[in-house]
Write a structure and sequence with these properties.
Blueprint (H helix, E strand, L loop, with lengths): L7 E4 L5 E11 L5 E14 L6 E4 L3 E4 L6 E4 L3 E10 L11 E5 L3 E3 L17 E3 L1
Antiparallel strand pairs: 1-4, 2-3, 2-7, 5-6, 7-8, 7-9, 9-10
């Protein structure tokens, strides 16, 4: 992908979800999921849908303590997005109650321009592995 294209995760909910979130991870050299760096989107409760839904990632994520997170722009590198859906009435502390999907690793090339936040714009060139 080039220019201002964004990576999207497209999904369908056959049943309502108690929580839907999209987290961003650094990708390891082999393309697998590495360290969690932050939350890209937190949809919360979501009902059953009749068609597909999409969540795009604009290159920012929330980082820091839960009581006071800050928005951070991703730097050049490789990443994996993780979509997590909590089953209806599921206990969020039990991993068996979550459905999880990881994207293939993708790379953000060296940024060359700045956004209004003063951070480099990571979307000058994005490629998938």
């Amino acid at each position: 992908m080039k220019g201002n294209d964004l990576p999207y995760v497209v999904f369908h909910l056959e049943y309502p979800a108690s929580d839907v979130r999209l987290d961003i991870y650094k990708a390891k050299a082999d393309g697998s999921k590495g360290a969690l760096i932050g939350n890209a989107a937190d949809v919360g409760e979501d009902g059953r849908d009749d068609s597909a839904q999409a969540i795009g990632w604009d290159g920012t994520y929330l980082a820091g303590p839960g009581w006071r997170p800050v928005t951070v722009s991703a730097r050049a590198g490789s990443y994996v997005l993780e979509l997590k859906v909590l089953k209806p009435l599921g206990n969020p502390k039990l991993s068996v109650n979550w459905e999880v999907f990881d994207t293939p690793a993708f790379s953000i090339d060296a940024p060359s321009s700045s956004t209004s936040t003063g951070h480099a714009n990571p979307w000058n060139s994005v490629s998938t592995r």
